[in-house]
Amino acid sequence: MPPVTAAATAPPVPVPAPALVSAPAPVLAPAGPPRPGELPWVQARMRAHAAPRPWPARTVPLADAVGLTLADALRTPHPLPAFDTAAMDGYAVAGPGPWRVRGEVRAGTVWAGALAAGECVEISTGAQVPAGACAVLPVEAALAGDDGLVYGPVPPPGRHIRRAGEDAPAGSLLAPAGTPVCPALLGLAASCGHDTLTVRPAPRVRVLVTGDELDHAGPPGPGRVRDALGPALPALVAALGGECREVRHVHDRPAGSLAAAVHGTRDAEVVVVTGSTSVGATDQLRRLLAEAGARPVVDTVACRPGHPMLLAELPSGGWVVGLPGNPYAALVAAHTLLGPLLAGLCGRALAPLPLVPVTGSLRPAPGLTRLVPVTWDGAGARIAAGHGAAFLRAAAVADALAAIPPDWTDGAPAPLLLTR
């Protein structure tokens, strides 16, 4: 099996190691050649990320910042730790022993004065080390005598003391702008004394689900299909860094219904339209965007499934992402265009793609990228069974989507779009 290598644009990232799907790998049928005007998949992803300017920043309390993106670098205004700190419970000692106990110091308090050689104070983990102390003797290595002296081995200078600024000197860069705000970053900011963070808010997204054939509750009726994207897309939008404000179901006809839905409100920066992206009789989106004077950014992508996807900027400054109506194809398109667009609006870097060996039966097609669900065991990925453009079984249990290039062979490396 070939070794794991890094994509030229992004280093590998750690990925959890779930169990492999036990079903045999499917033999995937070949896809047709790329159509004229289809943008290569890698370029489409990069173009979607580069298209927007980052959303304006705002300052929010720490509690409101989780899940958002740093607009400014996080720095510490003072050293971390701010003072010499005991790393163990025991005795802060000065010089060789035995040591006479002068008092005690607990976390959050300060012992006034300075220790002379042969003196010590009882100290708790996290407490400030008194002046004159050269080390901390752990309590399990110390013997307190009835004579008021503490006996034990002389610890090396600096032993069990965290020096001021050891973790970060004052002014240190702790996290660059563009970093997602996670719980650990909130704790880091608080430890530096920050009460607020300057962040870019999550872009607001409105989802329009088209298709007169869709049922929205219960089993579908004869000749009809249950809507899978209406329930799935709000969670996917959130996972990609956006805030879903609304899911609206739009009829295929009359022709003006989709136009009214796209332009009807101003409460979202991004409108996602499912279906209506192809060239059938009921597919209106491209004509609607052309009539509105929208600027095309991506119009079809050389990948399968999901190629009739699109991205356009409206004259108002809003964005429209067109996804195919088939559920798995829509998932592929969302990761290809919507995710990078939201990252660009947030000021985040484009997510890195680890390059790992992929095994399974698949027939690549000239000029096309095949996006297939894979399971990942920490060393390599395997194509998961049970998917097609309209079937989400494999995607539901997969760890990633493998972007299979046209020249791939079984066991060769391919980039992974992580989905868990």
TrEMBL record:
Pathways involved: Cofactor biosynthesis; molybdopterin biosynthesis
Annotated signal peptide: none
Every MoaB/Mog domain range: 206-344
EC number, as in UniProt: 2.10.1.1
Main enzyme class: transferase
Cofactor: Mg(2+)
Family per similarity comment: Belongs to the MoeA family.
Record's function text: Catalyzes the insertion of molybdate into adenylated molybdopterin with the concomitant release of AMP.
Protein's name according to its UniProt entry: Molybdopterin molybdenumtransferase
